[in-house]
């Protein structure tokens, strides 16, 4: 119904080819994954991505306060900073999604009428954050360009989010980016709030 074609061509494709097309942000691949597969890893993927993001932040926090004292390694393992970073990353992602939902509900209320519409969009957004898994190789292959890699990963995740919104609600290209922009404003507002509270984010 959405793609105006008699059959989804990806039904005959190998999962690896579908994954490559999804990484290339092809709308039809996203449509196939969201509507014609029974993937149920949204929650696990979200938790894993948040753990990756929290680890990156925690690592940067530890780099800024590095101590060569061997006894500090024991204290290092017992610190609660990692859990705090996980909580902050979770709140930021939640505020980002809330910003997107508010914008889309305000701009296109007919698209988000029922609870199932909201759930489908949430699942699409959670799946489209898979780009955060690239944080793992960015940490493993640590080099001078890590901040640039992290910026590219953020842009890739935002492009994936845009495609997920576009495919789920069958919208044009402009409205998803507007929703993402508002989500980023809300997320940055949360970051500013934490910084005013004196937390390292």
Identify the quaternary structure here: single chain
Shape: globular
Total individual domains: 2
Q: For the terminal residues, how far apart are their CA atoms?
A: 44 Å
Structural description of this entry:
The structure is a single chain. Helix 3 crosses helix 5 (about 80-105), helix 6 (about 115-125) runs antiparallel to helix 8 (about 145-170) and helix 8 packs across helix 9. The protein folds into two domains: about 1-40, no CATH class; about 45-195, no CATH class. The longest helix has 27 residues, at about 80-105. By secondary structure, it is mainly α. The protein is built from nine helices and no strands. InterPro entries: Arv1. Pfam families: Arv1. This is Protein ARV. One of its GO terms (biological process) is regulation of plasma membrane sterol distribution. It is found in: Endoplasmic reticulum membrane.
Pick out its properties.
201 residues; 70% helix
Task: List the SSEs and their pairings.
Elements: H1 15-23, H2 27-35, H3 42-64, H4 72-78, H5 81-107, H6 115-127, H7 135-140, H8 146-169, H9 174-196
Helix pairs in contact: 1-2, 2-8, 3-5, 3-6, 5-9, 6-8, 8-9
Produce a short descriptive summary:
The chain crosses the membrane at residues 85-106, 118-141, 148-168, 174-194. This protein has 201 residues and is an all-alpha fold. The chain folds into two domains: 1-39, no CATH class; 45-197, no CATH class.
């Amino acid at each position: 119904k959405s793609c105006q074609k008699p059959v989804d061509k990806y039904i005959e494709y190998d999962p690896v080819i579908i994954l490559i097309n999804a990484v290339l942000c092809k709308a039809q691949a996203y449509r196939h994954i969201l509507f014609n597969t029974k993937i149920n890893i949204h929650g696990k993927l979200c938790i894993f991505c948040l753990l990756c993001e929290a680890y990156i932040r925690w690592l940067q926090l530890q780099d800024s306060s590095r101590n060569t004292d061997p006894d500090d390694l024991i204290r290092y393992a017992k610190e609660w900073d990692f859990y705090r970073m996980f909580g902050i990353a979770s709140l930021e992602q939640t505020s980002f999604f809330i910003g997107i939902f508010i914008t889309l509900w305000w701009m296109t209320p007919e698209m988000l009428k029922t609870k199932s519409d909201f759930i489908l969009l949430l699942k699409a957004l959670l799946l489209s954050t898979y780009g955060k898994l690239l944080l793992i190789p960015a940490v493993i292959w640590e080099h001078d360009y890590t901040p640039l890699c992290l910026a590219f990963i953020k842009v890739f995740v935002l492009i994936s989010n845009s495609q997920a919104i576009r495919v789920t609600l069958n919208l044009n290209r402009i409205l998803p980016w507007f929703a993402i922009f508002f989500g980023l404003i809300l997320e940055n507002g949360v970051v500013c709030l934490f910084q005013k509270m004196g937390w390292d984010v």
